[in-house]
Amino acid sequence: MEDGGAEVKWRFIGRKKDNKKGKKEGIVGIYETPKSIAIAYALAVGSKITVRSYVLQQAEDLTAKQAVLQQFVTEQGLQGVHCSYVLSPGEYNLNLVDEPTVPKEEVAKALRWVLKDLVNFPVEDAILDTFELPFVRARDNTKMIYAATMRKEMIPKIEAFIAPSTLVLKFIDIPELVLKNVVGLHPQEAKGCAFLYLGPKSGRLILSRNQQLCITRAFELKADDLGKDPIRDAKILDALSLEIQRSNDYIGSVFRQNIPNVIILAPTLTNRNILQESFKSSLGSEVFLLRLSELLTFEKAVKEEEEAEALLAIGAVLRAWEKVA
């Protein structure tokens, strides 16, 4: 698919190789929230991925965020380096649908018809891509796919945001696939696990196996309230346990697949020990705490709370070394 001369290739962009001499290797990951920006720069050193630098900065408007990005690029000498931009909730749609039984060249058109009542904007204005589940629906042997859509108008806005920094927009990614790459670093993921990522007001659950996303759920939850009130804690923990149990039940009933009762907790500002003990008790799960500093090389020491706030920016750089099935 073409858009403004760029090869659009969901998640979302794969541009032609930049052969500028003297350009630094590696990739920059960028993730914005309404009030902040997180940026990370990493490259492969031998067989290891090394995070050379990262920054977390409060910034509430476009100008402030651009200034942070430009300063990061200037200080690190990253002019012309490729970057991966991670979309925020509300900037894209992700729907699980049956794969259309049409010739390959007609799949995109058929999907747009399927999605027209599922997305919150005219599907004609969408950039669309898909990724398959690694197994079929058991009752009818049907392939199911996740269809990811974003408005076409988002691309020039993202390009305009990044352009003053001189970085080269290489990928536009979504949190679910960034998180899939993050948990793929953990040795327990190969046999299968549930990966739980909690922000202050919402979370994502990913069932993953052998670096393949099996199912994902997004949910609203005030996880930052944990540890303040025992009664409220019990409600939050029960809700989280239910999300995990429902996802495992769905995999089992719809796909006849079994994901081991293993939970990996992403870095979070929430007290992970509370979560760990709760899931061990309520679900009988084996629970692991993921630490990026144990799975990647950091040139500067990173605190757990910094891992939590920069997780999606750091995870975005893994796109450059993503396993190809």
Based on the model shown, name its key terms.
disordered N terminus; five-stranded mixed β-sheet; 325 residues; six-stranded mixed β-sheet; alpha/beta
Descriptive report:
This protein is 30% helix and 32% strand. The two termini are 22 Å apart. It contains eight helices and 16 strands. The protein is α/β, with parallel strands linked by helices. α5 (230-255) crosses α6. The longest helix has 26 residues, at 230-255. The chain has a six-stranded mixed beta sheet, with helices on both faces. It has a five-stranded mixed beta sheet with strand order 13-12-11-14-15, with helices on both faces. Strands 7-9-8 form a three-stranded antiparallel beta sheet, with helices on one face.
Helix and strand element order? EEEEEHEEHEEHEHEEEHEHEHEH
What is the averaged pLDDT score? 89
Can you tell me the overall shape?
A: globular
Helix content: 25-40%
Beta-strand content estimate: 25-35%
Main sheet properties:
6 strands, mixed
Structural class designation: alpha/beta
Which spans of ≥5 residues are poorly predicted at pLDDT below 50? 1-10, 15-19
